[in-house]
Amino acid sequence: VTEKLFTPGPVEIPARVLRALAQRPPHHRSETFRNLFADVSKRLDRLFGTSGRVVVLAASGTGGMEAAVASFVGRDEPTIAAVAGKFGDRWTKILAAYGHRPRVVRAELGAAVDPPSWAAALDAEPAGVAFLTHSETSTGTLFDLRALAQAARARGALVVADVVTSLAVHPLRQDDDAVDVAVAGSQKGLMLPPGLALVGLGPRALERLERGGRTSPAFYLDLKRAADRAADADTPFTPAVSLILALHESMSMIEEIGVEEVWRRHARFAEAIRSGAQSSGFTLFSKSPANSVTALVPPSGVEAGAVVKHLRSRHGMVLAGGQDELKGKIVRVGHMGLAYEPQDAVAVCGALEDAAMTLGATVVAGRAGETARKTLESAA
Amino acid sequence: VTEKLFTPGPVEIPARVLRALAQRPPHHRSETFRNLFADVSKRLDRLFGTSGRVVVLAASGTGGMEAAVASFVGRDEPTIAAVAGKFGDRWTKILAAYGHRPRVVRAELGAAVDPPSWAAALDAEPAGVAFLTHSETSTGTLFDLRALAQAARARGALVVADVVTSLAVHPLRQDDDAVDVAVAGSQKGLMLPPGLALVGLGPRALERLERGGRTSPAFYLDLKRAADRAADADTPFTPAVSLILALHESMSMIEEIGVEEVWRRHARFAEAIRSGAQSSGFTLFSKSPANSVTALVPPSGVEAGAVVKHLRSRHGMVLAGGQDELKGKIVRVGHMGLAYEPQDAVAVCGALEDAAMTLGATVVAGRAGETARKTLESAA
What's the DSSP call for residue B325? Predict the structure, then answer.
């Protein structure tokens, strides 16, 4: 059975991208590769909406997050983080590994940190660097990135945001959104296998790197070094050439459709999943649901783990459960990238309904898929 | 024109490996992937010849080198490095980025650090961690890894070696060679695109990680974290799944031929290149030539850069020049991996001869290729 991934990343990879991955890669110092990389870099600048520069590291998204911490936080510089889940917590863990003790503005799981509390915390005590998460993958929650970023920047902080599951999913433009450093990974909206971290550096971030003053050791993850070479569309260390060939292809897919339409497409798909799943007794875990990942609480009496198992064994659909304290409590449906068709939303909702029924919940047969279909039609 | 890479890495990738790369990758938390990764891990343990554990990072080889520095060197712990080229220097640069000041035992470019000088330096002042390079890619020079490692271990140091261009090229068995930490990359003898760092951790290295005591900040590059998860054939962060599928395939290729035969194959190919090139007026730059990369000084009056250009434009063969102070002085022919046939050695030598002739050197036409062919025949 061929399984289809509806996971919160890695996501299903389009055939075009897989074909690009299988090319004999050119040498990374050849003109062919330099031209391709220069082109990818220009497209990434547009996608991130930055007048600065996007650097590409051979690393997972976490490597990109650590690069931001190592490259931007000075010794004893006060830091602050907005946290409401595993990936917000990852900022605090990386900061702790570097000897920093960030203040944490926390919201409960499934909620987003609200801008007034965040601004109040920044007013109470200023921070040099503020850490945000745009889409919290562990709970399927969207933060109001622009409001939080503007509040932090207005109070003098450099703004660093995890946009791993929001880039090419939710509207994002670093310049307009007051985000100085945006960290993304390859295996989400960019539809690649894992292995690349992308770090968008806005003008304030570049200026700060230029000024220096960072005191943490960094070499491979040193963004100053990477930014200097990126100015010539180059990398300080051997780049992951094949993944960059694939990135060139996935950027083409996004640009052919147009990034605004890519955002709308994700919004429609997510709305279909939400409406369909709710019509068969699932409830939304998040109070501010993201369009990247939908976190669902199963109907009462139905175990989340059993739903995940059922969809996999009976329907060939790979979903994810909850992590850490959400283990066994939620089901997460990932829907990032362009390998999904509207029909997939209908199919996933039908399968969720089938799982609920099979596992003992009372549902009206056929309603989930129909609701999803109607939602898609009314959005079209 | 399709060009063939004879570069010191990335190397030419076999078609089988490219096909593996283009598979729809399984989710990294699926049983399919876990089983595959467990199998790859076991094979890597054999390839490194370690009774410890090999960890796989999504990073370039330099990321693996930094992981070793960040994870093993304690604050104010004395370090020492054997340096005779760019990659030996990389150890000292990474150490410096982490605030360490390694003592350097240096040999001139093209030579290897000799074990007696190394032992004398260690006798003069002990070191907690010793850094070595097995095959120095910038000069095509092989170090006597075992002698250097044994000398360092006998004097109490933890031994860390860059085996980036020696793994699956030169005989190497961590346990027998007294190497506690061996760092490799994917785009050399393993015939993959760049993007994976592999770190072989011997029993003494694992014990040291267990004991703790390291003081540098590290998160993504923390080998303790990676080793703990590797014990269950898992990774702390999303692995570069596609590259690991390709690694599974390249490990199969190596095991089908047998690693000893892979070593011999590299030795024969390199010997053919050396004899053929020398017979048309090139001289060997290295006093201790490695079988991974051959560094050649062109006949007098012939510019190295012009040779590289000639081979590329007239013969479709991509070679490398020298780096840094060796720029313009040498030509480097890379011959790692299994995508090269004996006939390629003859062809490269013929092309080098053609370049020398075209660029004004006096050579006997046809001798280079014939010499290479005879060398291959006598070795067969």
Answer: G
